[in-house]
């Protein structure tokens, strides 16, 4: 059940990024080392398809997140991520 929910979150994120940022692709990652013992969060960031440059930092998300993932949500978290990179 948890894995299916996590996959559903990933699909929603990919769909919204495809609409909002068609020149970017999504890269997902998981926590490593000691952090994985604390929780099973996963992260994503977007990379430009042509240049390979990332837009912002990794956005971390709990796989149990039950809130709505909309285009507005994706745009907001990526915007916050880009601001924190400076």
Describe the structure.
This protein is α+β, with helices and mostly antiparallel strands and 86 residues long. The chain is built from 3 helices and 3 strands; from the N terminus they run αβαββα. The chain has helices at 2-20, 35-38, 71-85; strands at 24-30, 42-48, 54-61. A 3-stranded antiparallel β-sheet has the order 1-2-3. It is globular and about 35 Å long. It starts with a helix and ends with a helix. The model has no long low-confidence stretch (mean pLDDT 85).
Largest sheet: spatial strand order: 1-2-3
Gyration radius over CA: 13 Å
Mean pLDDT: 85
> Could you tell me how far the N terminus lies from the C terminus, measured between alpha carbons in angstroms?
38 Å
The total of helices stands at 3
Q: Which residues form runs of ≥5 with pLDDT under 50?
A: none
Could you state the order of secondary-structure elements as H and E? HEHEEH
The percent of residues in helical segments reads 40-55%
Percent strand equals 25-35%
* DSSP strand tally: 3
Largest sheet: 3 strands, antiparallel
- Classify the secondary structure makeup into a structural class: alpha+beta
Cα shape: globular
Fold blueprint:
Elements: H1 2-20, E1 24-30, H2 35-38, E2 42-48, E3 54-61, H3 71-85
Antiparallel strand pairs: 1-2, 2-3
